Amino acid sequence: MKSRIPPRKVAAAVAMAALTVSTLAACDSGGGGEADGEGQSITVQTTDTIPDRVAATQEIVDAFTEETGIEVELIGVAEDQFNQVLTSGAAAGDLPDVIGSIGLTQVRTLGANELVNTQATAEVVEALGEDTFSARALELNRDGEDLLAIPSESWAQLLYYRTDLFDEAGLAAPETYEDILAAAEALDSPEMAGFVGATAPGDAFTQQTIEHVALGNGCEMVDDAGEILFDSPECAGALDFYGNLIQDYSVSGAQDVDTVRANYFAGEAAMFIWSTFVLDEMAGLRNDALPTCPECADNPAFLAENTGVVAAIQGPDGGDPAQFGQITNWSITASANTEPAKQFVEYMMSDGYVDWLAIAPEGKVPVRFGTAENPTEFSDAWQTLPVGVDTKAPLEDFYSEDVLASLQGGVDNLLLWGIPQGQGDLAGAALGELPIAQAVADVANGGADPQTAAEQAAETLRSIQDSLE
Fold first, then answer.
1. I want to staple 341 with a disulfide (CB 3.0 to 4.6 A). Which of 75, 189, 336, 389 is the partner?
2. Domains of the chain
């Protein structure tokens, strides 16, 4: 899974290790002096530094250079070094022209420091067609009237459930707290946990899981004025629900990102919460994370074929159905060579977009669905893109149309703590300290009642907030 590392954690990492930046020079233009951009150049920074993804990105960059004549230097910056590199670059007047593969918290950091060319950003979206984008993805990138970045793709947290078991028991899809508890109770047995979810206190995945559960109950970390809200009845109610689910219908012991997946893959849980990055693994396409359920021996794709998804969960205490996830984005910096930078982002969101999504389709769900002429061009193509590591095949080979539609439509319900309220720095820092993950662990193991755990987390959040001022 992909998580965002806050500034405080970055500083600690940089203190222990030297800054490393991997640079790949773009190939010479194949435009033969005829392309409009001949003689121009830009620098593009990406936080996606996995070698095969860098290589795939370089191929798209080279195609852009060949088409336009604009030279591109592609720079990979490790995600946990983003803030330090940004600070150093801004101080030296040496920012890249375009920054890509950044989440909403990093976008807010750029915006707060006035490092974004908001006019160029708006012009790119206008040129591509605002109606071709997810309205929610654009909304999460706005600061008032200003658009801080061009949304590129999303990944989301999902509740996965065994459709075969649900159908056999006559259970409704687990869309509400009540549905989930009822299903967990009906399907829980000595051989099968009704549900498995994260409880490890030091794991960002635990906070991401409770955030997914809590958002649909109207639980917010902070309000527009910066007041911490995690000690609210809505947040305590979410902790109470999740604690009951874990204590009564889950497996024993602290669960982390790996053990949650392993329990479901072994056929030992009827429901689990994970991100879209699990989709290729659940289809049996990655040898180091194969499903091991009894039925999977004969059919490695058994779980994929018998799993449904719920994107947005609804709680009883208020709020609309919602889900946790992330939008990754392209940002044009304030010091950019504007016109070629705009051309580059427009290319990555049009001619190069399908190739970009193809780098990791399970974690790159399109938020630009198509063009004015073909409104579903990119979403249709995404379903056919091969996923996997050791074996590759498209998601549509394993998952139903309903599942794929839920994946693509989920962005409309996507929320993140702190981002709509303009509190991205607090949200990022909270993922470093993880007081909410600790609250989950305390409730799950009986160490604190939900209201007390929520109040303790809120106090820690206030201390984090004070340290950021």
1. 336
2. 7-155+325-414 (3.40.190.10), 156-323+420-468 (3.40.190.10)
